[in-house]
Amino acid sequence: MKFRLGSVVFISILLMHDLYCQKEAYTVTLSPFSTDKYDEYAPVYYKNGIVFCTNRNSGLVLNYTDSDDKGFFRIYFVDTTYKSGKSDEKLFSKNLTTKLNDGPVTFNRNRDTIFYSRNINDNLKQKEVSGPRNKLGIFSAQLAGKEWVKIREFRLNNEWYNITTPCLSPDGRILYFASDKPGGYGGSDLYYCQFENGYWKDPVNMGKEINSTGNESYPFINLSGELFFSSDGLPGLGGKDIFFSRFSDTAWLTPVHISPPVNSPYDDFGLISDPLMSKGYFSSNRNNSLDIYNFKTNFPQIFYSSLQRENQYCFRFNDSGSIAVDTTYLKFRWSFGDGKSSDKAAVNHCYNGPGNYIVRLDIIDRKTGNLFFVKLLYSLDIKDVEQAYIKSHDVAVKGDVIEFDATKSFLPGFEVINQSWDFGDGKRASGGTAKHSYEKSGVYSVNLGLKLKSTSNGEFHQTGISKKILIVTDLQEKTDTMVKRASFKASVIDIKNYENAIIKTEYSAESEIKQDVVFTLELLESENKVDLKSSSLNRVPQKYVIKETEDLNNGFYSYCTGRQMNLMAAYPAYSEMLALGFKDVKIRTLVLKEPSEIELYNLIKNNGTSADTYFDSSDMLTSVAYIMLDQIVKLMTKYPSIKLEVSVNTDNTGSAENNLALTQKRSRVIVNYLVSRGVNAGRLVAKGFGGSKPVAPNFLLKERRLNQRIDFNII
What we know:
Layout: E1 26-30, E2 40-46, E3 49-54, E4 74-79, E5 89-91, E6 102-107, E7 113-119, E8 136-144, E9 147-153, E10 163-168, E11 174-179, E12 189-196, E13 199-200, E14 204-205, E15 216-221, E16 227-231, E17 241-245, E18 247-248, E19 251-252, E20 256-257, E21 268-273, E22 279-284, E23 291-297, E24 306-307, E25 314-318, E26 330-335, E27 341-342, E28 346-350, E29 355-365, E30 371-382, E31 395-397, E32 402-405, E33 414-422, E34 428-430, E35 433-436, E36 442-454, E37 460-472, H1 475-487, E38 493-494, E39 501-508, H2 509-512, E40 517-526, E41 546-550, E42 557-564, H3 571-579, E43 586-591, H4 595-607, H5 611-614, H6 623-638, E44 644-649, H7 656-676, E45 684-688, H8 701-707, E46 709-714
Helix pairs in contact: 4-6
């Protein structure tokens, strides 16, 4: 899982020992195999025990950093199950033992390959041991039976600088180590190199986020790829301290100091732990000798936490306005899929919580309340933000008990292993729920840390969240604060812009009108074919031509009539059909597929349909009409199989008889011209409808002009 780390502010939790009066974050004890007489350091897990470095029984010379005659270090093993009832340390391997310093070590996951540090040249005389060219390098070996064989020198070893404290990544493809090679940020830096095509590539410095002007060493990568290391250059308690970091996107995050008593004013380094960091080991010289300590986690440290984002359930729903709707006769109706609706084109709506909702925007006939047109239909899946989540009051009075709940955390694909709380006042707790009260007023940052296990691959992860809590002095101040906050209205986000809302569009008229589309009147829809002469359709006036189409998506048959260039032009016919008893009538879009229909559609769109454009006051064709009709001739020639209906319409001014005669006369004039230009008369139909097929009311002049029109339809 990739947690969103790059775009939020991280809060590094550096909680020092003297701030806490309750149980400390960690319990530290001296390991049973550490001694007062000798030094032990750099523990590493191996099978049922620990491999570590020690100078016991080794004669004279160096300790782990300088030459104060404590003796050479050897690689030892101890079985930590203590089956014998006592600590039984022994030399790990004679084959890996040299005359000088051996270790620290690291193993691959199968425990059959070892990388270990040692002096590059182990054949020096006593006086040459601490010479400038007796550097530490890395070597490897393979396990064959019970013996380590095939000892190989790491190709990056160099007699002029040290390469030491190796650590393999869990997959064995990356080797981390410390080196004081030139070009770093300080004394020794952390580096890594990758194994590709049977070859260890050149080392890469881990960067300024990890390395300081001091010394960094002892890297440990856990099974989640998280880094622990030691540094005497980063801010700490003194000497070498242990730090934690995690790689996010393209860089390592700012290191976080491990809380006391793991870290101390002395040298602390070489930490290892189980995947959840519930327990582990580390090295320290806090008691006048270098020893290995056990630690047990009491309250998991929250290394990084992002600011909590509140889940959004209130959204803005808007009609795009790309299809004109006359709200004198029609109204919008949003249905939100939760039993609620709104008759506004733009509206704010709040859901009760996450879920899947079917949202639709319908256009409704104001007079009858019937459906006129479906404008939008989609599935809306609202999800909570994928994050750890703190449920609690935002404002409380000091001394009052506040309940904190982590069970609303939404982290799909992960099982929550444990929860830890840091209340920002030096107190901690664990568990899915917690109770806490604050002794002083102020703003506190409450942090919740979760240890997670992937349900897909079993890998462990950790994440954290932070939330601000305001603690006030009395109930009146709390009331005033809450009233003030309630008066502040945050902007409501448009549903289309909310990143945690998944919209799956089932139908969008706005999308369809980007194509060559007309609006048609659907009289009925049926699973089975319907006879056009049946009682279901014989009520339709003869002026309307009914066409049958099959929806290939659902197999239904649709029976439609009329084709209009805009939605409102279909409203008069819709009202007429409602009055005739077609209760399920509605307008739908029809995407033109035939090339001839598409070309005719574009001719009409470009030249218009106004009768005033085609005829002068003497009912003679105008020059503009000839241009349009000549293009119709070309269309008929290009598509010799099509037939064309030329229908002329007028408004309701004057008598119906005169209007019908006028439109019939004009339709014949147009057809006669087309015939004169070579179009076969058998392919043309002239019709005049008078004022019986309006596309707009006849109250205003601009509406009446819309009804004075010429229609061309392929039949």
